[in-house]
Design brief:
Elements (H helix, E strand, L loop, with lengths): L10 E3 L21 H5 L9 E5 H4 L6 H17 L3 E6 L18 H20 L4 E5 L4 E2 L7 H18 L4 E5 L8 E2 L4 H10 L6 E6 H6 L4 H10 L3 E6 L18 H14 L4 E4 L14 H19 L2 H10 L2 H12 L3
Parallel strand pairs: 1-2, 1-10, 2-3, 4-6, 6-8, 8-9, 9-10
Antiparallel strand pairs: 5-7
Helix pairs in contact: 4-5, 8-9, 9-10
């Protein structure tokens, strides 16, 4: 069991987690909050770092001098608030060049756009003093199977990862996998798929995984199992915790709000493994949430995580092992449920 103090966990979230409440079927219901004002809330909510897309730092498309100067201003803002940048993720799913995917597009011009933008994200990471580049392969898939060659697509993703590893020998590449949405069929839909790619890359030591709870659930997996397997490989370098009500759209609900036992098992795996990466929260406020309450989902997720840390540390490991040896899983289940009920 880990002896890590609760205060040693580092918590992060992205500025997009304080959002206006729009969805595919309705407009925004809350006013936009300026980026600088969002940063001012982090420490008050108990968070330490900021997850960043490239264009969260500075809009894509300017000269490198403009990009660098803009990034330096944002870096100073983070420093002034006592925050760090956890990672940079190139946003490769909203530009017209990525309609048919980025790295796996059938268009050579569009593939070049994705590679150029990803290289720029690596350069941006240097300015922001982070070594982690997160790849969410959002549109690396198809709407129909015959639209692309999946073997070619896998090779193109590997070549993109190798290109990033070559571009800067200090960075690490973290794959964040998701089985569907926005694409119907995603290439490399699970952490295990990207993990296999890591070992085929030019530098497996610098290739790892970011696991999001909801993405594992959407694949029909338990997040704790995906995390445990990746931890076994020493490849779990970040997590995005949230919750999900079944195999629906990606809901990003407050961590532990749907399945508390599933959340307990997630924390239990991280605790017992001595996980030392950031605890990222990727959660969205309900659309019905009023402006004055639009950060509660973040504070609540962090609180639930830390309460579950307490529960995990109160578990009698010797008793658990005894019940395992006796194969008395009914009693083990009663014991765990009792812990979650505060007994």
């Amino acid at each position: 069991m880990s002896t890590k103090a609760k205060g040693q966990y580092r918590f992060t979230f992205g500025p997009w987690n304080i959002a206006r409440g729009s969805d595919p079927f309705g407009p925004p219901v809350r006013d936009e909050i300026a980026f600088a004002d969002k940063l001012a809330t982090y420490k008050a909510l108990g968070f330490d770092g900021v997850q960043m897309h490239d264009d969260d730092v500075v809009p894509y498309g300017g000269t490198w001098h403009e990009t660098e100067q803009g990034a330096k201003r944002v870096k100073k803002m983070l420093d002034d608030h006592g925050l760090f940048c956890e990672f940079i993720a190139p946003r490769l799913w909203e530009d017209p060049h990525t309609i048919d995917g980025g790295f796996t597009s059938n268009s050579a011009e569009d593939r070049k756009y994705a590679l150029d933008r990803s290289r720029r994200a690596v350069d941006l990471a240097q300015v922001m003093d982070t070594k982690d580049i997160v790849l969410w392969l959002a549109r690396e898939g198809t709407y129909i199977r015959e639209a692309k060659c999946p073997i070619t697509a896998s090779q193109r993703i590997l070549e993109a990862v190798d290109m990033l590893l070559d571009h800067d020998r200090r960075i690490r590449v973290l794959g964040e996998m998701k089985p569907n949405e926005p694409m119907d069929h995603a290439y490399m839909p699970t952490p295990g798929h990207f993990l296999a790619l890591c070992y085929k890359s030019k530098d497996p030591v610098r290739c790892g995984i970011l696991i999001e709870s909801a993405h594992s659930i959407l694949a029909g997996n338990d997040p704790s199992d995906d995390m445990a397997y990746t931890l076994w490989h020493n490849k779990l370098w970040s997590v995005h915790l949230n919750d999900q009500n079944g195999l629906k759209y990606d809901q990003d609900k407050t961590f532990g709000s749907v399945d508390l036992r599933r959340a307990f098992n997630t924390v239990w795996v991280l605790e017992r493994a001595g996980y030392d990466g950031c605890v990222g929260l990727d959660v969205k406020a309900m659309r019905t949430t009023t402006a004055e309450h639009q950060t509660k989902h973040l504070a609540n997720s962090r609180e639930i995580f830390l309460r579950l840390v307490d529960v995990c540390r109160s578990v009698d490991a010797a008793l658990v092992e005894q019940l395992r040896q006796q194969r008395d899983y009914e009693e083990l289940e009663r014991y765990i449920i009792g812990k979650l009920m505060g007994r």
